[in-house]
Structure formats: structure tokens, C-alpha cells
Automatic annotation (TrEMBL):
PROSITE patterns: HTH_MYB. One of its GO terms (cellular component) is nucleus. The keyword Transmembrane does not apply. Keywords: Nucleus, Transcription, Transcription regulation. InterPro entries: Homeodomain-like_sf, LUX/BOA-like, Myb_dom, Myb_dom_plants, SANT/Myb. SUPFAM superfamilies: Homeodomain-like. It is found in: Nucleus. This is HTH myb-type domain-containing protein. Transmembrane segments: none annotated. Residues 102-153 form the HTH myb-type domain.
Length: 303
DNA sequence: ATCACAATAT
DNA sequence: AATATTGTGA
């Protein structure tokens, strides 16, 4: 229905960070590179509110020393004297930016972005755009995403034996609890990020799909009205079934199990066409049916 | 161009 | 240890 759609969006909007949270993240008037080039610091805030600025002086960030001395001597990438006009762009291009520090707040943004984008759109560029943090690059996000996926993977395999769904499995097990783990744990992992890794993942097949052998059933969502069901996952790249498929977060998984038809696809919405650029995500609800867990994926994670 | 991923660098 | 960069193959 149209009504549901607006609610859906409103809810999504409600979950956006408050203005207080946003304030430190708001856009600056000049690019990071230029700010660095001219040694412009954030004047209006004494503390480390600016996400990117908190970064600047990591011990490893020798970079600032390079810029501090004076503009004449500083050159990062083999660019000599800086002409007044063109030198700036050149410098902005070649300047080393400080390392990004992934604060819990920033990570939360990341997670929110991924959650709201939905699996198929959660790629570095899109994530970066949705996060809209000034100075954040696609590479920053890609690097973080890569690590985050490893974290999710690790978390899943560790959690698999001990049905302890809630408490972090990696704490009890061979767990590691590094600082990174704590960062990743600082933002709740949306349920639909986690899938039982047990090789029982099934890519979408036209018509619906279910996993058989495992005790996990996977139900595909229906999006829109037509005969089309939206793929919950990206397909493995044109390879035949029963080989491998590409899990959005867990990478290539081998698929041995047979696909079995179960359940009814879920309709995302009545009219089905107000979607467009809207962020779409999926949520899973675990239901017990005959000792079988059914994971249902809905469009939009807010329900 | 962008992505994912592993390996490697800082 | 945390993040960046690079290389490779989609």
C-alpha cells in the first residue's frame, strides 16, 4: 500500500541520527585535502567532534609533520614547487590523507547504511554515499567493509555450535576480542547480516526457494507486484547451480543442498511501485515450525 | 569503473 | 594493531 510505504520511510527517517549526532559529521566547507594543505584546523570545536579530524594525529600519521613545516618543502608524490594556480588541485590529488579512525559512531553509520541499503546495494560506493561523511572515501569504506565481513564470518562460524545466539560466541570460544571486535560489537549487527554459515545457503531460484537438508529454511521475499521476486542475494556469477554462489557478506559459499519449495513469497507492498531509489533491506524472523527454523526475509528491515 | 578478496605495506 | 594500498580476477 502507499500508506505502508510512507510509514516505512518515516520509520527509516526516525532512526536517523539526531541533529546532535549529525553535527560533528556535517560537511565542511573545504575538502579535507585543502584543509590539510593549508593546515587549517577546526576552529569551532575544541574537542574531537569532527570525525575525520579525530583521525589526524595517530602516531602513525607522520603526515601532519610533512605539512606543518611550510608549504614550500612539502611534497608527497613527486610534485615539485607548487604553482599558485594549478598546484592546489595537484596537491589535493596527491596529498596523503590522514588515516581514518573508525570510531564507534562512524561505524554505526556504516552499519546503518549497510542495513538500510539492503544487501544488493551495500557496496562501498553506495555505502559511502549514504553515510555522507565529509572526507570519507570509497577506499575507506571498502577497507572497513572487508574487515567487517571477515568479522561477520568469524562470528558466525564461532556461533554455530553453541546455539547461544545472543551472547557473542567468539567470547567463549577460541575467541579473540580484539579492539576491532569491540568496535564491531559496538553497533548491533542487524539480524539479517548474519546467516547460518553452514553451507546451506541457497541462491534465489525463480519461484521461491528453500533449503532442504539443513534445518534452515530460507524464504524469498516478493517485491513489487509483478511475476518477479527480487533476488535476496546476488547470484553467483553465471555459474551453474550446485557449484558456488556468492553470498553478499560471506563470499563464495559452496552449495550442496537441494532446493526445495516451501512457503509463500511475501509481498512487499500492494502497489509495488513506490520503490525506486528507496533503501531496501531485509529482516529475518525466526520461526519454529516442526523443529525447523524458517528465516523469512522482508523487504525493509524496520518491520 | 567498480567490486571482492587476499596479500602486503605503513 | 588498525587502516591503507596493491594486485588480481570478475
Amino acid at each position: 500500500m502507499r500508506e505502508e510505504d510512507s510509514n516505512w520511510f518515516a520509520k527509516w527517517e526516525d532512526e536517523l541520527p539526531s541533529p546532535e549526532e549529525l553535527m560533528p559529521l556535517s560537511q565542511t566547507l573545504i575538502t579535507q585535502d585543502l584543509a590539510i594543505a593549508f593546515d587549517i584546523r577546526n576552529s569551532n570545536n575544541t574537542n574531537q567532534t569532527d570525525i575525520i579530524n579525530t583521525v589526524v594525529n595517530s602516531p602513525q600519521a607522520n603526515s601532519s609533520a610533512e605539512f606543518d613545516s611550510d608549504m614550500g618543502g612539502t611534497r608527497v608524490g613527486g610534485e615539485g614547487g607548487v604553482g599558485i594556480g594549478s598546484g592546489l588541485d595537484e596537491q589535493a590529488r596527491t596529498l596523503k590523507r590522514p588515516r581514518l579512525v573508525w570510531t564507534p559512531q562512524l561505524h554505526k553509520r556504516f552499519v546503518d547504511a549497510v542495513a538500510h541499503l539492503g544487501i544488493k546495494n551495500a557496496v562501498p560506493k553506495t555505502i559511502m554515499q549514504l553515510m555522507s561523511v565529509d572526507g570519507l572515501t570509497r577506499e575507506n569504506v571498502a577497507s572497513h567493509l572487508q574487515k567487517y565481513r571477515l568479522y561477520l564470518k568469524r562470528m558466525q562460524s564461532n556461533n554455530n555450535g553453541a546455539g547461544n545466539g545472543n551472547s557473542p560466541g567468539w567470547l567463549s570460544g577460541s575467541g579473540v576480542d580484539t579492539a576491532m571486535d569491540r568496535l564491531f560489537a559496538s553497533a548491533p549487527v542487524p539480524a539479517h547480516f548474519l546467516r547460518p554459515i553452514s553451507e546451506h545457503y541457497v541462491p534465489y531460484t525463480p519461484g521461491t526457494m528453500q533449503v532442504h537438508h539443513p534445518q534452515i529454511a530460507l524464504q524469498a521475499p516478493m517485491v513489487g507486484h509483478g511475476p518477479q521476486i527480487q533476488q535476496p542475494f546476488r547470484h553467483f556469477r553465471n555459474s551453474p547451480p550446485n557449484e558456488q554462489f556468492e553470498h553478499p557478506f560471506l563470499g563464495r559459499q559452496s552449495q550442496q543442498q537441494q532446493v526445495q519449495r516451501i512457503g509463500t513469497p511475501i509481498h512487499a507492498n500492494g502497489n509495488g511501485n513506490s520503490h525506486h531509489g528507496m533503501p531496501t533491506s531485509y529482516v529475518e524472523s525466526a520461526t519454529a515450525a516442526n523443529g525447523r527454523k524458517v528465516l523469512t526475509l522482508f523487504p525493509n528491515g524496520d518491520d
